[in-house]
């Protein structure tokens, strides 16, 4: 495969500089071809560097074939690129190749675990799958700040198995009540599912505390890494979680590709979720035997070009340096939070004095978030509005919807200042007075 372009960055010890970020932006066609755009919605989906487009195009032009099937040289080349992409993405999160399962997105990855547990609870998978069996008296624990994708699959699993779903609450200012872990996570808990970074608040969960409590009671841990893998250095072995889900489109990669990390011994013990071709060893008219992980979870024709695009994205992030990405976003996030907190009639959502990524969520007194978003859009500032697929959290915070601004490595201090200037004008535009 031909090499893809590298980002044009300098390499100081920590953090990015404004000049470097300016040069990085040149790698993102949409940003350079849309004059005046201030894109602050990377928490929903990130922009893509040119090398990601070129990697996918190269595959389609030079190696397009079905993987893990044909014996011809083109199929071998396609399979090699597909598996090389797995290696690259697995290494990016500190996993081994056979511990990374391709999915369409993080939502599918989380549903994969939930449905595998459901199948085990119905008796599929034999003795090896007993650890995934749930029934009446068992508990599944989540947190009140979860994205719906890490809540509803567990609600459904509880419904199908008779298990009980409970949760770690948040305070009315959005602080996760970690001190409730021992009360809520009990000897009956079988699964503890929680987000690494809140998609609403940008706050970072104390993963070590959650894992330690789960280990103490023998529960499996499922981490939602959608907002952490793109923005922070993540090592799944150091985090010591059992499973982690994340999506490519939030980390400079294509849409339609996500991944599930799982400990090798757990993946190989889980009964599959989707079944069909490419995930079996032997099939008779009465039964089938399944391949080891990750293939047992990759039935049918796979997302080959998307995996290659995602590998190009993690190569880009690796070259920039995730420590430096995190430091720059922390700087931008602090600038946003301080600026928003200083605007009359604006409420910065979330607890004070906690570690965050470069995300700030807010409410403007007297103006609906959708109106806020439309006004900001008229000023060239793209943000997310609504409940951000986290209705229970918003209910506890006492708001039905909010406005969220989320940064990435290509955002500048000027972007943040443009946001603050526009927000300061919102109430005046809508005629809302103190």
TrEMBL record:
The lineage of its organism: Bacteria, Bacillati, Actinomycetota, Actinomycetes, Micrococcales. It comes from the Bacteria. Residues 38-419 form the Aminotransferase class V domain. InterPro entries: Aminotrans_V_dom, Aminotrans_V_PyrdxlP_BS, Cys_dSase_SufS, PyrdxlP-dep_Trfase, PyrdxlP-dep_Trfase_major, PyrdxlP-dep_Trfase_small. The keyword Transferase applies. Belongs to the class-V pyridoxal-phosphate-dependent aminotransferase family. Csd subfamily. Its cofactor is pyridoxal 5'-phosphate. Catalyzes the removal of elemental sulfur and selenium atoms from L-cysteine, L-cystine, L-selenocysteine, and L-selenocystine to produce L-alanine. Keywords: Pyridoxal phosphate, Transferase. Pfam families: Aminotran_5. This is Cysteine desulfurase. Its EC number is 2.8.1.7. It comes from Zhihengliuella alba. It catalyses: (sulfur carrier)-H + L-cysteine = (sulfur carrier)-SH + L-alanine.
């Amino acid at each position: 495969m031909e090499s893809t372009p590298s980002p044009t960055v300098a390499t100081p010890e920590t953090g990015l500089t404004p000049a470097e970020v300016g040069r990085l932006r040149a790698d993102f066609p949409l940003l350079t071809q849309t004059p005046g755009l201030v894109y602050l919605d990377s928490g929903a989906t990130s922009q893509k560097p040119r090398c990601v487009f070129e990697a996918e195009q190269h595959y389609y032009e030079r190696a397009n074939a079905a993987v893990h099937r044909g014996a011809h040289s083109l199929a071998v080349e396609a399979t090699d690129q597909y598996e090389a992409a797995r290696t690259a993405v697995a290494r990016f999160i500190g996993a081994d190749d056979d511990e990374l399962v391709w999915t369409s997105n993080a939502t599918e990855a989380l549903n994969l675990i939930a449905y595998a547990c459901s199948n085990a609870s119905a008796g599929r998978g034999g003795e090896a799958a007993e650890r995934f069996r749930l029934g009446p008296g068992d508990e599944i624990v989540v947190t009140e700040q979860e994205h719906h994708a890490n809540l509803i699959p567990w609600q459904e699993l509880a419904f199908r198995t008779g298990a009980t779903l409970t949760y770690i609450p948040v305070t009315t200012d959005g602080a996760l009540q970690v001190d409730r872990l021992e009360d809520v996570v009990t000897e009956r808990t079988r699964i503890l599912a929680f987000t690494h970074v809140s998609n609403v608040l940008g706050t970072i969960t104390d993963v070590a505390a959650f894992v330690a409590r789960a280990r103490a009671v023998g529960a499996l841990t499922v981490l939602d890494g959608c907002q952490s893998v793109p923005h922070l250095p993540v090592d799944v072995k150091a985090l010591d979680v059992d499973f982690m889900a994340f999506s490519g489109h939030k980390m400079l990669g294509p849409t339609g590709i996500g991944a599930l990390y799982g400990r090798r011994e757990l993946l190989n013990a889980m009964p599959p979720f989707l079944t069909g071709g490419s995930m079996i060893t032997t099939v008779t008219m009465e039964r089938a035997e399944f391949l080891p992980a990750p293939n047992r979870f990759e039935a049918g024709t796979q997302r080959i070009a998307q995996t290659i695009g995602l590998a190009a994205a993690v190569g880009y992030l690796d070259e920039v340096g995730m420590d430096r990405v995190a430091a720059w976003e922390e700087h931008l996030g602090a600038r946003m939070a301080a600026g928003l907190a200083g605007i009359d009639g604006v409420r910065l959502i979330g607890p004070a004095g906690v570690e965050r990524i470069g995300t700030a969520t807010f409410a403007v007194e007297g103006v609906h978030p959708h109106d806020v978003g439309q006004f900001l859009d008229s000023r060239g500032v793209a943000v997310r509005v609504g409940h951000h697929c986290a209705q229970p959290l918003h209910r506890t915070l006492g708001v039905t919807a909010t406005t969220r601004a989320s940064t990435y490595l290509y955002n500048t201090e000027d972007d943040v200042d443009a946001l603050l200037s526009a927000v300061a004008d919102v109430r005046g535009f809508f005629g809302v007075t103190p």
